[in-house]
Amino acid sequence: RLFKNDPVRDPQLMTRSERPCNAETPPEKLTDDFVTPNNLFFVRNHLPVPEMDAHVEIEFDAPWMPDTVKVSLEDLKRKYEHLDVMTTLQCAGNRRKEMHDAKPVKGLQWTQGAISNAVWTGVPLKKVIEDVCGPIPKEYEDKLQHVHFHGAEGYGASIPIAKALDPRGDVLITFKMNGTELPRDHGGPVRALVPGHVAARSVKWVSKITLAEDESESHWQRRDYKGFGPSKTLEESKYEDSLSIQEMPVQSCITVPQPGQVVDVNQRAVDSRDEKSVAVKGYAWSGGGRGIVRVDVSGDGGKTWIDAKLRRPGQQQGREWAWTHWEANVPIPENSLNGGKGSVEIVCKAVDTSYNEQPEKMESVYNVRGVLVSAWHRVKVEGIL
Ligand code: MTE
Ligand code: MO
């Protein structure tokens, strides 16, 4: 079978499809550790996991180069400085199931676990390109717009050259994840890592890197991972006219409690008021290196809000690639607990360093592919006193 060489996965992962493997991190595990353990990092594969050994060579190509140049992974490791970059990767389809439940969409039914955070070790792509491809000739300076990554199993994607060559962009050719060899499911032995961009651009098992005038021709760059208007059907959605997703919008989710859970509504001091409250936890993240400045949490469906306590990665401004974890004791209105029991809706929304906020309604950001799901996250629980 095609998939017989796929690695064995942790049974704790929540499988959305077996072949290829698509599996999400269990929601409460997302906020157990700030850095997601490798075995619990979500997996999103389009094809079987390829066999690649550690002696692999990466091929480089640019329009002015007479021939492509191959550089072994060993040489890359030996010649360049190793950088550790903490980066959250989020799939464009994270939370698709919520959108699907509002109105049907096409794609894997991810809940909120198609996102994880890790420390990636690698060499700076910018330095490697400058060395291997040389300085960009004058006549290509304006024309050259994209860097393509080719995956050994046939997947491919590209990113804007401005991101690839930005010394503060932290794009890596990575070979370690959380201090250990890159696991095969996450691109081992070598992967392109594009912090702040949709995970689809961090191409696993990268075997070729091309500097080009146009975007990658791959299906996943041209015919997937694009947004459309809320009323467009699949037939009316014109991929050629829509922009490829790169940086992602601001996002947040409640990880604890989970929908339908019975929660204890304790007496707790919140903002020095004496109210009933529920303990809530979650994550927040934004694309493009924008950090999270605030997470607003509501226990009355979005009428009143409190600020969550944030645990931020402490990365430099503009390079906040990792998520923020947050916690709050959310006040619950007394009248929702008639007889000491009742259903409660908890809502969260995050604000990023550009003061972008999540939209309130799923309907307003609906798109038929179910990508870029960023509406306020709502969780209904049973509260008991
Ligand atoms: N790279 C290759 N070669 N093949 C793939 O199928 N999937 C992409 C991206 N890179 C993919 C890939 C998508 S859509 C996502 S969301 C991330 O890898 C998932 O990365 P992970 O499996 O390490 O979580
Ligand atoms: Mo993805």
Automatic annotation (TrEMBL):
Subcellular location: Mitochondrion intermembrane space
TM regions (residue ranges): none
This protein's UniProt keywords: Heme, Iron, Metal-binding, Mitochondrion, Molybdenum, Oxidoreductase
One Gene Ontology CC term in the entry: mitochondrial intermembrane space
Cofactor dependency: heme b; Mo-molybdopterin
BP GO terms, sorted: sulfur compound metabolic process
Entry coiled-coil feature ranges: none
Enzyme class, spelled out: oxidoreductase
Protein name per UniProt: Nitrate reductase [NADPH]
Organism of derivation: Chytriomyces confervae
Residues of the full protein shown: 198 to 582 of 596
